[in-house]
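Hey, can you fold this one?
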Amino acid sequence: IIPKATSISLTRAYEKVKISWKKVSNASGYEIYRRAETDAEYKRIKTVTSGSTLNYTDTNVRHNVKYYYKVRPRSNYGDGFKYGEYSDIVSCTAS
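Sure. Predicted structure:
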């Protein structure tokens, strides 16, 4: 079963960005992607291997840089994974 997309929100603190998302039924984990305003492509920064974990704090950010995030759920499927759609992209400037 392919999981549905989730929605995400961001909370920023000094040199940290907390990414939170809504639980997706039948998701066994989530992948978090980020790009900075100067990056050309998104890079996966974290794979969460629990379907019940619904946040991650990105501590690898720089002051006054704008970051863009998206999350996609995944579910176990045989010896691999099925991936859901990416969430909407949410951005913030790290403080």
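The chain has no helices and eight strands. Let me know if you want another pass with a different chain boundary.
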